[in-house]
Specification:
Elements lengths: L3 H8 L11 H9 L11 H26 L5
Length: about 70
Amino acid sequence: MMSVLDVQEMLGLPLLGVIPEDSEVIRSTNRGYPLVLNKPPTLAGLAFEQAAWRLVEQDSMQAVMVEEEPKRG
């Protein structure tokens, strides 16, 4: 089995998160119900939510960097 570090090295990118194996992922998918809305929350649902927040933060930081670049001309 590959480690998280192995996957990052293979892709050449940092990972946003690691989703643990959870049978609730399949059940939620089959029901058409978002895993992150399950009550009580599952570890996989929390991991998806954390990865989504990291993606939003990354996107926000890139937007700030673009806005702060000096204009040429």
